[in-house]
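Write out this protein's structure.
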Amino acid sequence: MPLLLAGVVLWICAHLLPAALPGVRANLVARFGEVPYKGLFALDIIIALALIVFGWKAATPTPLYAPPLYGSPIPSVLLLASILLMVASTLPNNLKRLVRHPQMAAVIFWSAGHLLTNGDSRSIVLFGGFAVWALLEIIFINKRDGEWQKPASVPLLSDAITAAVAIAVFAALVYFHASLFGVSPIPA
């Protein structure tokens, strides 16, 4: 569990730094330059991901609660919404006019979907940690950036493309989840 916890903490710290302490980021960029700063940030994220992957595999899960929605379709709906929000964060669409932080909302939905179907210690560290990070990120970004300026509307075709991409990604993840992560998202 220590590797997993270290990876999640490293991920959270690296990502919160620019939003929570923009002055520190500015000082680091002034001292080292933009490209070296981004390189260090990328290296930090790679190390965090490696720690998370190896920590997950090394941790022995201890059951902490009975997953309340195991076998229910609700977590799948949350995960589809998560993928839709993540795709929406990168493509032009009108969902960005309704949700200020679609990427962070996606992480929260993804985390919630997993916590409703996994009640073990390592799931709480990973998915709970990512949910806390996303909530803190939203708070710090809102504080840093001030009032939200909604983007201009785009044609409805952009929304249809966003939805189609999200559905395709969701279908691929459902299909490959067991081979990638060792667990089928659809209980037998």
